[in-house]
Amino acid sequence: MGEHQILVTGATGKSGRRVVRRLRAEGAAVRAAARGGEHFFDWTDRATWDAALEGVGAVYIVPLDGTALVRPFVERAARLGVRRVVLASGRGIDVPGYAKDSGGMLEGLIDGEAAVRESGLEWTISRPGWFAQNFSEGFFAEAVRAGELRLPGGDGAASFVDAEDIAALVVAALTGDGHSGRIYELSGPRAVTLEEAAATISEAAGRDVRYVPLSVEEYVAELVGQGVPPEDAAAFADLVEPLREGKDEHVSDGVPRALGRPARSFGEFAASTAAEGGWG
């Protein structure tokens, strides 16, 4: 994007901080924005938007869950001279019944996609499925550290995508040609069950991690017993439903289509996490 900076929102998150690292490794001028990042940015405080967007030519947009703020942000970005946007979205958002939306996130995601498509800017949409990094730094990480994945996942599988692949695609779309007007659905190269994931992590980490399948009722009761409000416990159970029902087993072609190489496997993710000391 020439002399213009690249703005990365959500710059402390799983994909955002990897995007920042990769862009800087390529010598790009990056504004890493987040509430706790180098450049202060708060989705809920529109007074922070202009300072984040000033002098920016391209933006990686990581929306705030449960909000519909992408549309006004993109409109403001266009007025301030931004020419290219890459939006973080989610696989399955356009599939009716793909997942329960008790957390209220779907409407904002759908409107965000529509906003970038209607913006008149060069746009790309990234739709990743389940992050492999949920096991190392996200949803499942605490259970992995404890040695037991106690989840209502049944024997369902998911084609977990490595956040490094997400970041590589985002950087390619922010800095290169040929990605404008494209929606990339992202996954790993094959589906992995929770039992297989636990075994793979065990081998890489050199310690035992096992999967304990629970019913939804057992899972919610355990969370409530740990002090989680019942409505939040039910929402967590809903997040696992697509995995349990096998709705995220399919393999998407976004990584090879965008990057010209295979997606990283779950085994590669587990091994690289172990090499970085990420399994504790």
From TrEMBL:
<dbReference type="InterPro" id="IPR036291">
    <property type="entry name" value="NAD(P)-bd_dom_sf"/>
</dbReference>
<dbReference type="InterPro" id="IPR051604">
    <property type="entry name" value="Ergot_Alk_Oxidoreductase"/>
</dbReference>
<dbReference type="Pfam" id="PF13460">
    <property type="entry name" value="NAD_binding_10"/>
</dbReference>
<dbReference type="InterPro" id="IPR016040">
    <property type="entry name" value="NAD(P)-bd_dom"/>
</dbReference>
<protein>
    <submittedName>
        <fullName>NAD(P)H-binding protein</fullName>
    </submittedName>
</protein>
<feature type="domain" description="NAD(P)-binding">
    <location>
        <begin position="10"/>
        <end position="175"/>
    </location>
</feature>
